[in-house]
Structure to design on (270 residues):
């Protein structure tokens, strides 16, 4: 990972990533709806993290589909695989593998999905080419990438709060996370990867928390910004919370913090 791509250390935060799953659920549902899995399908989830939305699909279609989730972080794979064991799920497994080097033969999968993974790959184009390679001819894909920087509001707020307080090399990864957010960027990349039939749909969904405190508790407990906090002098740490709470103030409605985020739902076929 280059220094300007300050993603969380996925291995280290794996156990805590699930704190975000309830917020991301609507995106998983939209991906699965577009994916349109059918009985008998073999499916791959790229950058599968702690297992969602592949696990939801496995629960819904037990005995009908075979799913392989791949992720480059061992820690995330272990958390996902533990859920398979705990729930005694059949037909789903998670394996440590880079999306840029998928260890499967060509034309193996009927469908591919990916939630908020592609823009985080070291080489998104290579990952998409690999996804295409392992899809069968006419195989379908459905994936989500974050929208433009100013629509990824929570990360935008923290970026603004940390900016100028820590070394530039450690800024929150807003540029990387939103790097595929402009529709033409994704369109160009998909074409370069060899896809010609696809749609790109901007969708707004909302993070919902019962208060600002509940939101901030999740930020802190998930260690999603640990790298940035560790770089901050102690006396400045409360300032970050205060600054972000000022941004959030406008998004409290009827006692609930409701924060819009935009993503691109990208689906198509090989
Ligand atoms: C934001 S998380 C999303 C996890 C899961 N898809 C979800 O939506 O809950 C991004 C995941 O992409 C994985 N990742 C990043 N770069 C990768 C790569 N080059 N190959 C495979 N996985 C990668 C990370 O380890 C992390 O688990």
């Amino acid at each position: 990972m280059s220094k300007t791509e300050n993603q969380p250390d996925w291995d280290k935060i794996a156990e805590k990533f699930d704190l975000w799953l309830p917020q991301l659920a609507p995106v998983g549902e939209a991906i699965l709806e577009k994916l349109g899995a059918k009985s008998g399908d073999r499916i791959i989830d790229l950058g599968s993290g702690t297992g969602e939305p592949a696990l939801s699909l496995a629960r819904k279609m037990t005995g009908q589909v075979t799913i392989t989730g791949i992720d480059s972080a061992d820690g995330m794979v272990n958390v996902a695989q533990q859920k398979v064991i705990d729930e005694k799920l059949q037909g789903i497994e998670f394996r440590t593998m880079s999306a840029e080097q998928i260890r499967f033969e060509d034309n193996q999968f009927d469908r591919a999905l990916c939630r908020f993974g592609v823009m985080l790959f070291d080489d998104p184009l290579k990952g998409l080419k690999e996804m295409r390679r392992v899809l069968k001819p006419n195989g379908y894909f459905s994936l989500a990438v974050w929208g433009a920087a100013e629509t990824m509001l929570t990360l935008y707020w923290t970026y603004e709060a940390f900016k100028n307080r820590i070394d530039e090399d450690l800024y929150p990864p807003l540029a990387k996370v939103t790097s595929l957010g402009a529709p033409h960027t994704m369109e160009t990349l998909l074409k370069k990867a060899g896809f010609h039939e696809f749609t790109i749909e901007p969708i707004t969904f909302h993070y919902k928390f019962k208060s600002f405190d509940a939101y901030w508790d999740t930020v802190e407990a998930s260690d999603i910004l640990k790298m940035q906090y560790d770089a901050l002098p102690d006396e400045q740490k409360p300032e970050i919370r205060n600054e972000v709470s000022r941004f959030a103030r406008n998004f409290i409605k009827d006692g609930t913090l409701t924060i819009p985020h935009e993503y691109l739902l990208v689906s198509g076929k090989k």
